[in-house]
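INFO  loader      accepted 1 record
INFO  loader      residues=153
INFO  predictor   begin
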Amino acid sequence: MKTHRRRLMLSLVLAAVAPMARAAAGKPAVEVWTGPSCDCCRDWIRHLQVNGFQITAVHDGGNSDARGRLGMPLQYGGCHTAQVGGYAIEGHVPAREIHRLLKERPAAVGLSVPAMPRGAPGMDGPQYGGQRDPYDVLLVQRDGSHRVYQSYR
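INFO  predictor   done
INFO  writer      dumping tokens
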């Protein structure tokens, strides 16, 4: 009787967990390194989660070291660094452009939104009073150059 109950309980737990595991498996996995004491990084992470990404780890601090390991040149730096699908993501890059990057798979280091433009994901909360700065999402090439991947005006 106890064995039957254990099997039943295990099968119920597995039945409840399996759909969540399958859903998470279909989402691109993202690892993030934040800048010191950065609230906008958390808002950007929430933006990614809402837009179909699975955050596998968030490291408080260490984004400068991560940027170097991932090959993202310093001049493209932002307040946080992420890795997804073999690419570096630097700063407040919209989820839409990350999805596009993963679909197109260009030979590149990754994407960057240098600085911290108001209105970009994570920089669009009520504390910014609805202000929006124009900005470009840059595709950073392996030779350190870049091209505009998408403009936001």
